[in-house]
Amino acid sequence: MAVPAEARFWNVPNTLTMSRLVLAVVVFALIAYGQYLSALAVFGIASLTDALDGYFARLLDQGTPLGRQLDPLVDKVIVSGAYIYLLSVPQTGVQPWMVTTIVVREMLIQGLRSHLEGQGQAFGAAMAGKLKTLVQCLSISAILLSLAIPTTNNSWILIRDGLTWLAVALTIYSGLGYVVMAMPFMRKKTSTT
């Protein structure tokens, strides 16, 4: 008996998601070795796969519960990892408290998502979460670009740092939104046990 395409792990969206995980490791290695322009290029390709996996999941009707958890998890790995690696590089504007805030939020929301999805409750990305991911990617790209092409242009540094601060603010805002969204499901689960 043939397995339906949408039930297979190695469908198009999941393959794109897993390729993003491999690209994340490449980005981390490139940052560690100071190859910032190459890291930016690979990060850009990884960001493109993030847009494409959701598109193909809808187009080919290959969305799966595993894919709904795997896609945001891999997003969190590449974003959190990139900020962690950039934290050790001077002149990035990234502060330890910013990275801690981002990592803690990502772990908390992924834990909530996994718990609720495991209970059969769909817990997909909200618009604020998607916007947060976009701004985080723009922030990381701006930082990598500023490292690849050093400048003393204060306007560019303000844009780079502004994107990073906005990413942190959206991280907190969207995290609170997810917690509020999850509360009714958590209360319902608690009241039935």
Automatic annotation (TrEMBL):
GO terms for biological process: glycerophospholipid biosynthetic process. One of its GO terms (cellular component) is membrane. It is a multi-pass membrane protein. It catalyses: a CDP-1,2-diacyl-sn-glycerol + sn-glycerol 3-phosphate = a 1,2-diacyl-sn-glycero-3-phospho-(1'-sn-glycero-3'-phosphate) + CMP + H(+). Its EC number is 2.7.8.5. It comes from the Bacteria. Pfam families: CDP-OH_P_transf (PF01066). It is found in: Membrane. Pathway: Phospholipid metabolism; phosphatidylglycerol biosynthesis; phosphatidylglycerol from CDP-diacylglycerol: step 1/2. Belongs to the CDP-alcohol phosphatidyltransferase class-I family. This is CDP-diacylglycerol--glycerol-3-phosphate 3-phosphatidyltransferase.
